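Thread amino acids onto this structure.
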């Protein structure tokens, strides 16, 4: 569900952003939405990475004494 927010900018900045939006065939709202979505996506990826790293560092493997055998690993099947 979309929510509205109110933002304030100085006149020069807003004029520049409006011109930029027009040149790129979007709106100021579209630019802000894209910027916020980019921030949110970066944070989601950072959190996913942190969760992944936490998960893999907490795994305690147990090979049951099995060790890699070079010949077995390189065996062509």
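Threaded sequence (77 positions):
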């Amino acid at each position: 569900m979309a929510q509205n927010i109110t933002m304030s900018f100085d006149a020069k900045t807003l004029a520049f952003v409006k011109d930029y939006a027009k040149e790129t065939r979007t709106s100021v709202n579209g630019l802000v939405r894209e910027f916020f979505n980019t921030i949110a996506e970066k944070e989601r990826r950072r959190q996913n990475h942190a969760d992944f790293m936490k998960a893999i560092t907490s795994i305690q493997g147990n090979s049951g004494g099995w060790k890699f055998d070079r010949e077995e690993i390189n065996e062509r099947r």
